Amino acid sequence: IITCSNGIKEDLIDTIGIKAKSINAIFNPVDVEEIKTLALENNPVNEDNYIVHIGRFAEVKRHDILIRAYAKSGVKDTLVLVGKGPLLEKNKLLVSKLNLNNKVIFMGFKKNPYPLIKNAKLMILSSDFEGLSIVILEALALEIPVISTNCLSGPAEILPMKNLCPIRDIEKLSVLIREASIRPENYAIPLGEQFLLESSTEKYLNIIS
Length: 209
Fold this sequence. Notes:
The chain contains 8 helices and 8 strands; from the N terminus they run E-H-E-H-E-H-E-H-E-H-E-H-E-E-H-H. By secondary structure, it is α/β, with parallel strands linked by helices. The strands form 2 sheets. It has a 6-stranded parallel beta sheet, sandwiched between helices. It has a two-stranded parallel sheet with strand order 1-2. Strand 6 (122-125), helix 6 and strand 7 form a beta-alpha-beta unit. Helix 3 (63-73) packs across helix 7. The longest helix has 13 residues, at 170-182. The chain is globular and about 55 Å long.
């Protein structure tokens, strides 16, 4: 059995009783060069300073928490939301209710989101749960700072604790958004070698052999 993060591996061991020797965690890798090449395409966002979130509009992604925390943070940077899903209209109504229509842009689904990421000031994740969160890795590949909720698995295996806050905590997420917006360089970290194609390929080959 192979999982995409250590958090999921430990969850399977604890909840299902799978023996540790029967399961391996191999991170989903990113192709840095391909991402950087695709990021050179035209950026559809006409904003100088913006914060980006990429994810399907579904309950687990907690756009509602993000939008409320963003409103509470008081930052001037535009919030760009990329994706589609069943809760899209509900979150549009929340944006209107909070009088954020002039500060939040709904971009819809983008086949190539990398220009959006590359030109962002900051990326945010607000999920209740992630397997690993490939979008964090993609942002780091483009040298973009990321802040996130500290899900059961995923973000804490990629980001330092200063970049994380508890799930569903609007107050703490708003503070983190404000601090990261003022000094994004304090939240920039390099992409770890363990998330590169070469590393994951080597681990798969070791299992096969």
